[in-house]
Amino acid sequence: DDAISDEQLDPTVITGQTAETSIASDDLILLSDTSASGALKKITQANFVSGVGGTNTPAFEATQNTQMNPSDATWTKGTYGAETYDTDGKYDNSTNYRFTPTVAGTYFIYQSAIFDAQGIDKFHSCYLGIYKNGSLYRQAYFDQYDNYLAYAKTPFLGTVVVMDDDDYVEGWLNFNIITGSNQLVNTGGVFGGYRIIT
Questions:
Q1: Spatial distance between the Cα atoms of 91 and 110, rounded to a whole number of angstroms
Q2: Considering only 4-8, 94-98, 187-191, which range has the smallest mean pLDDT?
């Protein structure tokens, strides 16, 4: 009747065969389609892999390419203007310095900055702040007030942010020095992020 039941199929059809250690993109995989009453179907390795997992995009990274002289002890948005990459063109590197992925998901966002007090006995403290939709979301804090040998510091902040398709994030900073007003945020800090495949 052109039908083979499991009682008629010997397990050695599979177990007795040589195991493959690699597979070519045009090799065929046999599968049972549950949406079609278990009909047996075939699919190439290339098409099978394309339907599994996902990509970590949108993703971006930009560096601080201009020196900043922020007001003392005041939150200031970082001007991360030089894009290392921007997979989907979702980072504004010239006006708002913000990442608006437009794809809902969970993202890893990170930031660093090079805080330079321009001399010893001047460095008090510094903050990094990742803002979501204009409000402080996560921050990193470094306080050097009782150790006057500090001159410059490069803190790092990384956090997970759950974002809807209209949310955005920005990298802010806050620098407090003890004396003077010539504190700098030097070039070389980074602001970046990518979507996490969950």
A1: 14
A2: 4-8
SS3 (DSSP) at 37: coil
Ramachandran region, residue 25 (left: φ > 0; alpha: ψ -120 to 50; beta: rest): alpha
Helix and strand numbers (H, E) in the chain are 2, 15
Residues 6+ apart with CB under 8 A from 176: 72, 73, 124, 125, 126
How do beta strands 59-64 and 190-196 pair?
antiparallel
pLDDT per position as a tens digit, 107-161: 999 999 999 988 878 888 999 999 999 999 999 999 887 666 667 889 999 999 9
For 39, the 3-state DSSP assignment is strand
Angstrom distance (rounded) from CA 54 to CA 145: 46
Q: Which of 50-54, 55-59, 84-88, 176-180 has the highest mean pLDDT?
A: 84-88
